[in-house]
């Protein structure tokens, strides 16, 4: 089974910092057998090309973009398109993160459009879904997340679905002040995601306060095909340790 271990740097790292991290990863992986582990890194847009160049001799590591517009070109000041991030070296596009939904008015409709455009250009959509604390407290986490996925992937053919990654990131568990989820809390949502989408999409990932202490347990949850990691992976040593945990699972 393929195990995905990825990280998004959000709005962090200069070009020099990004290059150092990527070159360090390339050097560490040179000549090493990754087995069924697929590493990926999603830097800020300014560093996509630099990170891709630093990892040019390590095609096993996929580079991504944190966002891309649903139109290929046009009068969209401040935006970048899927063809542009692909040109910079991205092979994955992160779509629908809760911060994009909350702060930048991302909707289910724009998320669906971005997924479709990403697929049309041969890149991998990484669809992020997750419920806020009030939904969890009301006991409707599973229904909320399944609805998000259904809206984002509506109308896609089986071949298209087979290229999609889904990252379940409960909003109450992510970020600097997030509370790490227990495996018991994640069992039901992942069981439902697995039943509805597990055989159709490329993989189901978990993200939300992932650290070196809980990574192995999270990878042990049924239906979890990988981890999408924040702060723990921003330092190269932390990311390398996560790769080891995945390989040793």
Description:
The protein is α/β, with parallel strands linked by helices. The chain has one domain (3-248): TIM Barrel (Alpha-Beta Barrel). The protein is built from 11 helices and 8 strands. The protein has helices at residues 15-29, 48-54, 82-88, 98-103, 108-120, 133-137, 141-153, 158-161, 183-197, 215-219, 236-248, and strands at residues 3-8, 37-42, 62-65, 92-95, 124-129, 165-168, 203-206, 226-229. An 8-stranded parallel β-barrel has the order 1-2-3-4-5-6-7-8, surrounded by 5 helices. Helix 1 (15-29) runs parallel beside helix 2 (48-54), helix 5 (108-120) crosses helix 7 (141-153) and helix 7 runs parallel beside helix 9. The longest helix has 15 residues, at 15-29. The chain is globular.
Lay out the secondary structure.
Layout: E1 3-8, H1 15-29, E2 37-42, H2 48-54, E3 62-65, H3 82-88, E4 92-95, H4 98-103, H5 108-120, E5 124-129, H6 133-137, H7 141-153, H8 158-161, E6 165-168, H9 183-197, E7 203-206, H10 215-219, E8 226-229, H11 236-248
Parallel strand pairs: 1-2, 1-8, 2-3, 3-4, 4-5, 5-6, 6-7, 7-8
